[in-house]
Specification:
Layout (H helix, E strand, L loop, with lengths): L6 E6 L2 E6 L10 H15 L6 E6 L10 H10 L1 H6 L8 H4 L5 H5 L4 E5 L3 E2 L1 H7 L3 E5 L3 E3 L13 H9 L1 H10 L3 E2 H7 L4 E3 L1 H17 L3 H14 L4 H16 L2 H11 L10
Parallel strand pairs: 2-3, 3-4, 4-6, 5-7, 6-9
Antiparallel strand pairs: 1-2, 7-8
Helix pairs in contact: 7-8, 11-12
Amino acid sequence: MSTHKDIITATENGVLTIRLNRPDRLNAWTPTMASEVEQVVRAAGNDDAVRVIVITGEGRGFCAGADMQSLQGIQSGGREAAQAEAPAAKEGIEQLYPGRFGYLYACPKPIIAAINGPCAGIGLIFALYADFRYAAEEAKFTTAFAQRGLIAEHGIAWLLPRLIGEANALDLLFTARKFDGREAAQMGLVNAAMPAGDLSEHVERVAQHLATQVSPRSVAIMKRQIRESYFQDFAASLEIADDEMKNSFSAFDFKEGVASFVEKRAPAFQGR
């Protein structure tokens, strides 16, 4: 168990679980929370003991958006205070996705957001950078920005139309209306929605499958392929795929994948 201030972390059977831990404020986002989550995710990306990352909220909320005290601080500090929080561009995937949450796309491990309750503003944006999103049917979502005099920040204007189409994206951004997990699933904003009591078990089942039944090497490469493909034409994507396929043939995980199938046993992938 972790000793962080605004999050709780625990690793079991290859699954790192990060819980946003400000339940009295519906896990409203703070600079401390942002720093702690990023630090833990970056470390997990280099930790062979971690195969999957699950992010959820403690208590009855996922993340209700930015802490209002932080927003008031930005208001009094003006535009420079808001801009000062933005991280510098990094290398690799983070060059394609600079800004606050590019590190989630750059992490080679699959990331699952288990949205157990209210998910708003920056909390919604954060969830969009996960690779999988599962929600409680009753969970309430909103972009919130237009009702606060803000704009589509942190890349959501680019992400949202690609996930749910322009018409739905404009609806959610312009109106800032509330919608539930069922509608989020219908739009494709989340992979699936289910009764709140079933969410944890479902996410655990998906996480354990990813941790034990698929090659970490394959997942890391495919994640990078997908994220890079939005900036490539088909020919470039195909060329990379051909090169990666050749490399796969000499990898341990390919040999193990074939052997475990032939021998009718569970695979013992090593991520190499």
